[in-house]
Amino acid sequence: MAESLDIVAFLDAFDGEPMVQNAEQGQRISAWMEVAGYYGSRLIYPRWMMIDLPEFQSEDAKAWFNSKKSAMIDMTFDDAFANSEEYIAKLNVELLKLDFLVLPSQRGNVLSYDDINIFPFLRNYTVVKGLRYPGNVRQYLDEVSALTSVKLYDAVAV
User: Fold this and answer.
1) Which is deepest, 60, 77, 108, 135, by most CB within 10 Å?
2) What is the pLDDT along the chain (158 residues), one digit of tens a residue?
3) How many whole angstroms separate alpha carbon 19 and alpha carbon 111?
4) How far apart are CA 81 and CA 47, in angstroms?
5) Residues 81 and 117: beta-carbon distance below 8 Å
6) Rg for the chain (alpha carbons), in Å?
7) How far is it, in rounded angstroms, from Cα 94 to Cα 2?
8) Torsion over CA of 147, 153, 154 and 157, rounded to 10 degrees?
């Protein structure tokens, strides 16, 4: 992830007028993602195979993803999906811990490195039907989605 952030910093500063604000919650976000990621990966990976994503249009791509990611979570996608209720319950508890998120609207609708770090994870979780987003987290998702024109997966959630 550090390399990606270096690329973001380079592109942001390229014109001499950086726009992305510094991270304020980097350690908290990293710690949260480490815990939530355990449940999230077991919820998300099987669902990527259930929705229409451009990166999985070929059987080879699906087979590669299934092989690599099922090994990563140490179970089949079918087993992971079968345990969704347990993982959803645990991830819902973790989502309640995101009370420290600062909404873009609270900082002039400007993105920060915190957003670059956490938004992709939260966006991916929107593919999971049954997750309960506390008000601030739902508003955060909607605001960053609107600012970046990056759609959420709510409409195709499984």
Assistant:
1) 77
2) 556 665 665 665 666 665 677 778 999 999 999 999 999 999 999 999 999 999 999 999 999 999 999 999 999 999 999 999 999 999 999 999 999 999 999 999 999 999 999 999 999 999 999 999 999 999 999 999 999 999 999 999 99
3) 8
4) 8
5) no
6) 17
7) 24
8) -170
The answer to whether residues 29 and 120 touch, using CB atoms and an 8 Å cutoff, is no
Q: In this structure, are residues 151 and 47 in contact, taking their beta carbons and an 8 Å threshold? A: no
List Cβ neighbours of 49 (8 Å cut-off, separation of 6 or more): 56, 62, 65, 66, 77
CB within 8 A of 110, min separation 6: which ones?
19, 20, 21, 104
Return the structure tokens found at 151.
């759609």
Give Cβ neighbours of residue 139 (< 8 Å, ≥ 6 apart). Answer: 103
How many angstroms separate the most distant Cα atoms in the chain? 51
Domains and CATH numbers, the chain: 24-148 (1.20.1050.10)
Q: What is the pTM of this model?
A: 0.88
